Amino acid sequence: MKLTVAILALLAVSATDAGRRPRPRPTATTSATTTEPATATTTAAPAATTTEVSGLSEYAQQVLEAAQEAMSTGTCGRPANADQCTGSCYGEVESVYIEYVENDYRYIIANGIPDHTANEGAERPNPNEACENFVYMMVPANATLTAYVDNGLGPIGLAVTGGFIYNPLSNPDGVDDVAVLMEGSSFDNCNGHADQKCFYHYHDDVSCVSDSSDCPLVGYLRDGVPVYGYCSIDGTQLQSCYAVTSGDGNNTGDYAWVESADCHLDENNGFTFEDGSYGYVMTNSYPYTPPGYMAEASSVCYF
Q1: C-alpha 241: how far from its chain's center?
Q2: How many CA atoms lie within 13 A of 180 on its CB side?
Q3: Are strands 97-102 and 6-8 parallel, antiparallel or unpaired?
Q4: pLDDT, tens digit, 9 for 90 and up, residues 245-285
Q5: Closest CA to 208 of 286, 288, 115, 126
Q6: Taking the CA of residue 46 as centre, how many other CA atoms within 13 Å lie in the half-sphere pointing to its CB?
Q7: Is 134 within 8 Å of 144 (Cβ atoms)?
Q8: Sign of the CA dihedral with 198 first, then 280, 291, and 126 last
Q9: Residue 269 and which of 33, 51, 60, 152 are 20 to 30 A apart at CA?
């Protein structure tokens, strides 16, 4: 079965191949440690998917087929790089991001390699590499919102660049744990960096997707809700409602969600647009990325 799909399988061999692409946006007018399963597990899955995707390289096709085989058995594996970095890394292999919708589910497959220039422009670069981590997510194409719950360390979603989205935390200790403040000097020109397990990820706006404030789609969280970059409506950039209520702002516990006339987003940096759609929005102040989920979260599965 052939469906209309969103596909990105871009070569990331040369640092000169940086790219920005337009992304759909809603219509509107107004390193942390990974915490994935230690062993392979199975997860309740929708019907097996055999969707064919055209235009893929041989490598990307192999990734697609391996992911679909894992999906068909409900296998949800552990991170390949849980103990050490393995596989090919940025500059040695192409980036893969494949997305399609089938039977009310959104299927997302990636290899963890960013499709843009990486590891350049950091004030204090870290020594970690961005290496292959083959993953898939099966999430509702239209998530049902419930109540806010905190998310955890490690991948909370997948970016359209092929990398991972992380939450605002730098560590689990509650002290000096705001990642943008503690680790920001190691972010590259696209606001990403790799952790010690070679997971390339973002704690901040995915700036290489778009350098504007026009609500570019930058990825999806594990609950299926889309994540948008900086977003302006009627010339006003949507702002977080979190404010420092104690301490110096270096700790997540220093912040509280305080609704006011000067902010626009709910406690998970979410916003309901004029067309009724709901999405999370990256912001230039805490929490920067969504700190939780507003719908039931699925797993990021490794294969």
Answers
A1: 21
A2: 20
A3: antiparallel
A4: 999 999 999 999 999 999 999 999 999 999 999 999 999 99
A5: 115
A6: 16
A7: no
A8: positive
A9: 33
- CB contact burial 5-17 (16+ within 10 A = b; e otherwise): bbbbbbebeeeee
Q: What share of the chain has pLDDT > 70, as a percent?
A: 82
Residues 6+ apart with CB under 8 A from 261: none
Per-residue pLDDT tens over the stretch 151-182 = 989 999 999 999 999 999 999 998 999 999 99
User: Number of helices (H) and strands (E), helices first, in the chain?
Assistant: 2, 21
Q: Looking up tokens 């010690």, which residue turns up?
A: 196
| Both structure tokens of 296 | 């039931």
**In whole angstroms, what separates CA 293 from the centre of its chain?**
13
Q: How far apart are CA 53 and CA 67, in angstroms?
A: 13
> What's the predicted TM-score (pTM) here?
0.86
* Confidence bin at 47 (pLDDT 50/70/90): low
Give the C-alpha distances (Å, rounded to integers) separating 104 from 62, 132, 177: 24, 28, 37
Residue 159 in tokens: 């970016």
CA dist 198 and 108 (Å) reads 20
Report DSSP letters for 105-162, one per residue: EEEEEE-S--SS--S-S-SS--S---B---EEEEEESS--EEEEEE--SS-SEEETTS
Structure tokens given for 82? 């849980």
Burial 114-152 (b: 16+ CB within 10 A, else e): bbbbbbeeeeeebebbbbbbbbbbbbbeebebeeeeebb
**What DSSP string describes 32-55?**
PPP---SS-EE----S----B-TT
- Using CA atoms of 200, 201, 205, 210 in order, give the dihedral in degrees to the nearest 10: 40
Look up residue 284 and give its two tokens: 């230039």
